[in-house]
């Protein structure tokens, strides 16, 4: 089993400590998978500045395969962050840098490379919606993070993404139960049968073919919540795949229930580390 994050990379720049950390949903997925003992890769676009060099160096140290990444002339993505009582607050950035305007385009060689992976993860900040139809020819399961912004929940956007993915993640801490049910029904209607709604301390909800599973939360005193959602998602997805989930075999109830527990524990540990997964650099 191998997995890959396809899409965004950024440096999370902590203003209060003058320290930057590697990040981005797709990068975090690859690193958390590696921490869980699964060979992993990242495919995306880097700039050619000091931040790009830093992220690539740290991912290489961790053992993430970057062999199909591209490097472009321009500024790498970064997000400016302050920490308030252990909770990260985004206060600025450059909107993803060069990769927003020039996201990776999958060629024949990339698609051949992707055939070796069981699971591909991407998200709304990767700007790779146009590439998702190409992934449908692969055996790999495709997961997609829709985050929390309403612009990524319109019918127009869902139609661009949902027909080409197997698993949808939404951050739904501010949603009412009625709003969650409406969202899930809409996403189901666009063809996705596996939907995870993370809700912070309220605990996650997972819908599989219309059946609701409730996850729990392991409470810790957080050092930093950066990456908590990504780590939960990664651990949950990997558990489901390891216990038999494929495009033709739905995950079992037992795998789902145990996976939610495993993911809660892994996510709690993530909250005890600065940045999404450490590897900070003073600037």
From TrEMBL:
InterPro entries xref list: PfkB_dom, Ribokinase-like
Single GO term (MF): kinase activity
Keyword Kinase: yes
Protein name, entry field: Fructoselysine 6-kinase
The keyword Disulfide bond is annotated on this UniProt entry: no
Gene3D superfamilies associated with the record: 3.40.1190.20
Keyword vocabulary terms for this entry: Kinase, Transferase
Domain Carbohydrate kinase PfkB residue range list: 12-264
Source species: Brevibacillus nitrificans
A Pfam family annotated for this UniProt entry: PfkB
Top-level taxon in the UniProt lineage: Bacteria
